[in-house]
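Today's session is about reading a structure prediction critically. Students often jump straight to the picture, but the first step is always the sequence itself: look for stretches that repeat, for charged clusters, for runs of hydrophobic residues. Only then move on to the predicted structure, which in these notes is written as discrete structure tokens rather than atom positions. Here is the chain we will use throughout the hour.
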Amino acid sequence: MLKSLFHWKVLVNVLLAAVVFTGLVWLTFRWLELHTNHGKEIAVPNVMNRSVHDAIKILDDSGLEYEVDSFKYDPRYKPFQVLQIYPSPGSRVKDGRTIIMKVNPRTYAQVSVPDVLDRYKGLAFRQLEQVGLKVGDTIFEPSIQRDAIIRLVYNGTNLKPGTLLPRFTTIDVVIGAGPRRNISVPNLVGLTVQEAKAIIAQNLFEVGLVEHEDEGRDESDIVYYQDPAPFDVRDQGMQIDIWASKKTPAEMGGKISQLNSIYRIKIDPYVPGMDDIPTYSPPVEQYTPRPESQRPESPKVQTLPTETPKQEPAKTTAEPKPKTTAPATTPKATAPKKVEEKPKAKKVIVE
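Below is the predicted structure for this chain, in token form.
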């Protein structure tokens, strides 16, 4: 059997098979060299800090592919300036290699406005800051929702949730200041239901009962009655009920009278018999100042010794006429002219 393995025909077949295998391997590697441009490498050009348009032109001339990636905006650099490149400049790559460039965008990346309407202002401010939006002016408007976000405004335009804005954009926030007190109720009689609802919402009241005469829901029906009554004073946020019909208010007199008997009840403050009870009012004394000449003088007390010589009776002398002063309230009044005599001294013994 060993002789058959070393037969010359077997050896020739093995040699031919080895030659064919070697040729196939050589052709395969040769084809790979030609296909991959083995040994033909290109240096990556330095396009750092150039504009993206200039960088693309240079890479095209070098036979290299490119891919532009929008990098994080940096205000220190110009818009569309190349900030990074991969592979790094000077690296040797084959023809047709894709070069990745990171470019400074024109402005900050856009972010979506979060839905913060009707939420508390503290929570809303935190959500806006998390997405990269800044809060500018805070405007307070009357609203039944105190300290809640009513609107978001950017350049005078109301923003809707989901609107895309550049990152770090400043927006204004409208916050509810709470309802006002003692507001006059608008007159809705004669308006259509649609117009009445709009005025109620405009004055920050709530739409309450809406009753149609034909039990329909036609917004064009005319309002012929409302509760509270027009021009009554109420707080904002309270409900206003309306009654509507296809007829005019003048034709609904009977229905209006019936509703008045229910919603316009007047309370008579008069209590029978209260007028018969007499009321006592104390007399009011008016004080009128008296002139000094009419004021009584207190008698003078004089003590005498036990043994006294006989004294002559005191002579009566007329006192000088006193000056009378008129009260401040009656400047024209004058005191009566009367000369009073000085009383005689009396003997008073004090034990």
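Discussion point for the tutorial: The chain has a mean pLDDT of 78.
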